[in-house]
Amino acid sequence: IKKKQQDVLGFLEANKIGFEEKDIAANEENRKWMRENVPENSRPATGYPLPPQIFNESQYRGDYDAFFEARENNAVYAFLGLTAPPGSKEAEVQAKQQA
After folding, report:
1. b/e string for 53-78 if b means 16 or more Cβ within 10 A?
2. Radius of gyration (Cα) for the chain, nearest Å?
């Protein structure tokens, strides 16, 4: 879990994407909020969703596997609900798709 969290945080920091990290281990309120806000169809069959779970404000964006897939497909900004910066690979792909 820690390695996945570091992977997400490292990507966000490297790309200067602002974020707020919520500690669910030390803060029961954060843990409860995460569990309540992960959509039913994204929860495991048993138990609780494991971190990292990614949100844009209160909008659920996905788990680590969804983040990893978006990163592999140069679609992280879309995954996060953000506009890709001009000149990025993702912006170039979006421009080609719109042409």
Report:
1. bbbeeeebbbbbeebbebeeebbbbb
2. 15
| Confidence at 95, pLDDT banded by 50, 70, 90 | confident
Return the biggest CA–CA distance within the chain.
48
Six-digit token pair at 86?
A: 């001009």
Ordered by start, the domain boundaries in the chain are 1-98
- Averaged pLDDT score across all residues of the chain: 94
Q: Tell me if residue 21 falls in helix, strand or coil.
A: coil
Question: How far is residue 37's CA from residue 10's CA, in Å, rounded to a whole number?
Answer: 24
Full-model pTM = 0.88
**Fold exhibited by the domain 1-98:** Glutaredoxin (3.40.30)
